[in-house]
Amino acid sequence: MAEDHPSRYVKLRKDQAPLEDIKPGELNQPIDVPQLHVHKCNECGQPLPESYQAPADEPWTTGIINCAEDPESCRTGLFCPCVLFGRNVEQLREDTPWTGPCICHAIFVEGGIAFAAATAALHGFIDPRTTFLICEGLFFSWWMCGIYTGLVRQSLQKKYHLKNSPCDPCLVNCCMHWCALCQEHREMKSRLSDDSVTPMTIVNPPPVQEMNAAGDSPDSASTSANGAEQVQVEMQAI
């Protein structure tokens, strides 16, 4: 008969049992590692160095009521604000043509103003309840248009790190819509000006030189040598 060997396992008594049972999945919880907390760019997600500091908000180059500084944009914003808004969106978003925002602005702003003027002119011919509903709808569409144009202004501020001037972008476009459009156009015009031309230097290359064969006459060889000596590089500054 095989001899009985003592067991290598220790049997715990009741008072030595664990105080609480481990629940399933309790040991698979994520661990917080402070070294992995790296500041990343909000646009591309690349990690940034510890010394990186976000650029501070800069003031606008012109005030919101300084429309007279640019007479062209002032006239366009006064008589055709839809065109000025379309140009602003096109300069801000290169993949968006100016015609789309221009048409939307013309329908909701210029069209709303014309509809409101027609409603006021026909006062007495339209039922007062209908007039109240029309005015309420126009007021709502004006605020929606202010929010849309305010989002465009907010994108401009985010692109150039501009501060709110004088207040929230949507509120500015609702209360001072024409002045806001002119200010945005002047800001982008000053930052994306194409008037300054970088001086360039044009270097004309020397003429092509051909190698003569061994059997050519000495006169032709001397002529090519003289031509090579007369090669000059002309530099013109524009």
From TrEMBL:
Record's compositionally biased regions (Polar residues): 219-228
Region Disordered, residue ranges: 207-228
Keyword Transport: no
Superkingdom assignment: Eukaryota
Transmembrane spans: 102-125, 131-151
UniProt keywords, alphabetically: Membrane, Transmembrane, Transmembrane helix
Record's protein name: PLAC8 family protein
Species of provenance: Perilla frutescens var. hirtella (Perilla citriodora)
